[in-house]
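This protein record is not my work; I was only asked to verify it. Where you disagree with what is written, explain briefly why. This is what I was given:
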Amino acid sequence: MAPLAVLYKKMGWKVTGSDRAFFPPMSTYLEKNGIAIMPGFKAAHLEAKPDMVLVMAFITEKNPEIIEAKKLKIPVKVYADVLPGLIERENSIVIAGDCGKTSTAALVTWMLETAGYNPSFMIGGLPRDFEHGIRRTRSAWSVMEGDEYPASNWDNTPRFLYYNPKYLILTDVGWDHMDKFPTEKIYISMFEKLVAKVPKDGVVIANREGRNVKQVVKNAKAQVVFYDSLSFKNFPTPFKGNIWRQNSAAAIVLARCLEIDDTTTRSSLKSFSGIKRRQEVRAKHQNIAVIDDNAHTPIKVAGCLDAVSKMFPKYSIYAIYEPGNRSRQALAMTDYKSCFEGAKGVILPRVSAANEGVRDFNKKLAKRLMRYYKNCRYIESDDAVLSEIKKTAQLAVAKREKVAFVFMSQKGFRGMIDGTISLLQ
């Protein structure tokens, strides 16, 4: 939402924003771009009577600002209402899947930029190769990250079904958002509807290694081209790890569909700078590294740890995992049995969640994980988490070992990442 706020400001709108709390990098990004942010949700925030209230999907109709907006007859819109009109173009490229879509969308956007397409785009993160995560141009090309999450609390239609892709990249269809899609069959059917929207003269680019992907694309009316992590071994990848081999292969397939020459594609892969909070090295001090990542589901955790192990091959990895608003159903996900195998230790702090029903998620998850991982702990206090990290770092230094602390969450860890960096310094 933050990049969209900045785009509206660039278009001449006066923009303010409110949320339960604000965390880096988005909080600093908003401040840098002059967007006034107001902690908490209050009817008083609408005293200026704005022309529109734009809300995130998790906001309910009981929110005091929504109640006030309706009272004042101010239009209330969601992301899916405004994004297609702002960004989507005739040649629309959508990247969808339960994992890898932000990274792939950023990589594809950079590839088109390198090839001179000047695309409009929306990326669900902060790409390092662009000033903002969203851009509106006069080009006939657009790249959009397609999120399957419901458009709003009162509209269960996935956001990506509001888009009209001519080219669709499908990364993975592993059952997620179980609180919104109660069965795997329902979840898969949403992606089947998206594939059905791709016209006959379009292309579906599908990950052969992705879960349920072959099932989802089997009735596509468009051409289907598969890729996997073994495709295009003679091409470089911008970062290490299996997930980046898959992301790169998807971009290469698209490039060839658009007849972009291989030299340009190679150049874009080599020069791609990545995205903030995707295996982002926040600090490296002596033999200790601090990495920040958005991983919050088992498959994303496994992918992140695989990439970090390739980035820091001789380092012991300690995972600090705070999944955010994960549903109770997610506790039963079998992939939790193996996703932390790349870590020497796992710390589960308390969950930052507005929903009381999921605040104890990590406490319960720890009981499960202790069956599979010897060095796994739930730590309630943030100060105690930092103390544990400090102790681990001191032991590593004393033994002349190398260690990487990998923070994985949709949230901001309540300042613990910056706290860890300060400790190390």
Summary: The first strand starts at residue 16 and ends at 19.
